[in-house]
């Protein structure tokens, strides 16, 4: 069965994380309910939320020695905030779950299939 | 090419969608289906001119292509384990209890028009797989380089395979929304052909015929969907007027000045029958309402006999289901006939459509009728500048030239 990554990207403006405590609490509750539904449906593989982009460290060991740098690999206006990995029969099913996930977390969700081989 | 070959290719093109759709279901792979259909054509070109066309050419092509696909998969299976798996693929789509017609072409068109594909890719795939047009033909019709079109189609097919875009008719609860996407593709193909300027772009003009053919297929497959009938009627009634739409000098002829004797009466009659059928059903939608508006126009023996009251009412209904400034603009044209150009101009000026050539052209005509020549001249200039169609520009330029000083 194909696996899909449903990832949530944050950024400035529209995609900024909410700061209002009530909004944040509702988001947590909604995402919790969404996660429970996915587990009950038997499609759950893995999911996680990431700490803010300021906590990122980049390692480059393509050369003679590993170079460790503070920050993301590329300065970008958007960054990955969290993701779900679900096992689903086809893209239509993934898009349906993504729509509910987007509603729950209040962010845009990108759907990508994993390589099958 | 000999006549016999041309005849084989004509039948092949006619049956192509059915053959490919059936092979996609059987082998689960669009590329295998296309290659096998291509091989079946070669066999047909060799045998039919000598043996005669078989009684069921579509069935013959499907069987032959299926055998070609199996041979090829066996030959290549040591290299492509995936293709061997395709051999064993079974159609596990559950039977639809809702009574939706099962036809492979219907599945294929919903795959080709899937919302996860880019709109231009939906159009290209539909014409390639359902319409049987070649990649060079599609590229020429959309005025893009052949390599660009080939890449567009290849990328879309890769996405269908990698992301597992399903090959099935959507469930009843999603059908209306997804059908809207399919109808939009067909109408876009039609308009690409219809709005093409005359003469040098015959392949583009062939697109109207192709869109009508797709519309007829959809109508056969989904006779219960009133919007499918509505779109077909809209295309037929628009196509019927084509012979009178551009004059000998390549200038656009507006509806009110068209020679109605030049309209294709068979298409008009077919369109009117479909509109009547939609009225009986009583489930109006945007395509049915546009078709009904065109039916009112094609019902009038001459322009002065047009039932503008009816047209304004239909535009009101259309605005209620599809509110857009373009609909409001077209409604204003009817208002000008009913309540005069001054009332219509006030409605037109409220619309934010300054980049739309028809808005400028409508304003120009209303200002001309009100005797405001200077303003009309400026509006014609703006219309000529924003119109991309040579026949329309020629018409607008002549109107501008005939304004009172």
Automatic annotation (TrEMBL), chain A:
Pfam family, any one: YCII
Top-level taxonomic group: Bacteria
Domain YCII-related: 20-113
Family: Belongs to the YciI family.
Protein name: YCII-related domain-containing protein
Source lineage: Bacteria, Bacillati, Actinomycetota, Actinomycetes, Propionibacteriales
From TrEMBL, chain B:
Gene3D superfamilies attached to this UniProt entry: 1.10.1740.10, Tetratricopeptide repeat domain, Winged helix-like DNA-binding domain superfamily/Winged helix DNA-binding domain
Domain RNA polymerase sigma-70 region: 12-77
Key words of the record: Sigma factor, Transcription, Transcription regulation
GO molecular function: DNA binding; sigma factor activity
Positions of the DUF6596 domain: 178-277
InterPro entries (alphabetical): DUF6596, RNA_pol_sigma-70_dom, RNA_pol_sigma70_r2, RNA_pol_sigma70_r4_t2, RNA_pol_sigma_r2, RNA_pol_sigma_r3/r4-like, TPR-like_helical_dom_sf, WH-like_DNA-bd_sf
GO biological process annotation, one example: DNA-templated transcription initiation
Domain RNA polymerase sigma factor 70 region 4 type: 109-160
Short name of any one Pfam family annotated for the protein: DUF6596
Domain of life: Bacteria
Family listed: Belongs to the sigma-70 factor family. ECF subfamily.
Name of the protein in question: Sigma-70 family RNA polymerase sigma factor
Organism: Nocardioides agri
């Amino acid at each position: 069965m194909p696996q899909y990554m449903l990832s949530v990207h944050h950024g400035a403006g529209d995609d900024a994380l909410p700061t209002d405590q009530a909004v944040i609490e509702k988001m947590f509750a909604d995402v919790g309910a969404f996660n429970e539904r996915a587990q009950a449906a038997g499609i759950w593989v893995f999911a996680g939320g990431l700490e803010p982009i300021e906590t990122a460290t980049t390692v480059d060991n393509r050369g003679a020695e590993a170079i460790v740098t503070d920050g993301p690999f590329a300065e970008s206006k958007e960054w990955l905030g969290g993701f779900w990995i679900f096992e689903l029969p086809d893209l239509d099913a993934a898009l349906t779950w993504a729509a509910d996930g987007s509603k729950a977390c209040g962010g845009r969700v990108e759907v990508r299939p994993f390589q099958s081989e | 090419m000999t006549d016999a070959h041309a005849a084989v290719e004509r039948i092949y093109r006619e049956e192509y969608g059915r053959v490919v759709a059936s092979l996609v279901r059987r082998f689960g792979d669009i590329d295998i289906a296309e290659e096998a259909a291509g091989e079946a054509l070669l066999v047909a070109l060799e045998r039919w001119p000598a043996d005669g066309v078989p009684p069921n050419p579509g069935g013959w092509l499907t069987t032959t292509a299926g055998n070609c696909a199996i041979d090829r998969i066996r030959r290549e299976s040591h290299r492509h384990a995936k293709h061997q798996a395709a051999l064993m693929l079974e159609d596990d789509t559950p039977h639809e209890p809702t009574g939706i017609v099962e036809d492979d072409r219907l599945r294929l068109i919903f795959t080709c028009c899937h919302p996860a594909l880019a709109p231009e890719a939906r159009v290209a795939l539909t014409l390639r797989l359902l319409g049987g047009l070649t990649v060079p033909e599609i590229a020429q019709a959309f005025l893009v380089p052949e390599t660009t079109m080939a890449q567009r189609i290849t990328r879309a097919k890769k996405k269908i395979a990698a992301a597992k875009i399903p090959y099935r008719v959507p469930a009843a609860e999603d059908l209306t929304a997804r059908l809207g996407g399919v109808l939009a593709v067909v109408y876009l193909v039609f308009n690409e052909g219809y709005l093409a300027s005359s003469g040098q772009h015959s392949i583009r003009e062939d697109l109207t015929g192709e869109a009508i053919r797709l519309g007829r297929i959809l109508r056969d497959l989904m006779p219960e969907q009133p919007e499918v009938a509505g779109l077909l009627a809209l295309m037929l009634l628009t196509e019927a007027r084509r012979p009178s739409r551009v004059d000998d000098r390549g200038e656009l002829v507006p509806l009110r000045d068209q020679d109605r004797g030049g309209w294709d009466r068979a298409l008009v009659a077919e369109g009117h029958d479909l509109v009547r059928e939609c009225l009986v059903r009583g489930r109006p939608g945007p395509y049915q309402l546009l078709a009904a508006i065109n039916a009112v126009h094609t019902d009038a023996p001459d322009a002065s006999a047009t039932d503008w009251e009816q047209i304004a009412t239909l535009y009101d209904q259309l605005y209620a289901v599809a509110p857009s400034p373009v609909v409001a603009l077209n409604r204003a044209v009817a208002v000008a006939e009913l309540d005069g150009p001054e009332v219509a101009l006030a409605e037109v000026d409220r619309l934010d459509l300054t980049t739309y050539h028809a808005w400028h052209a409508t304003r120009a005509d209303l200002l001309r009728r009100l005797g405001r020549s200077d303003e009309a001249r400026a509006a014609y200039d703006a219309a000529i500048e924003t119109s991309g169609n040579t026949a329309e520009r020629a018409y607008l330029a002549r109107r501008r030239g005939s304004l009172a000083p």
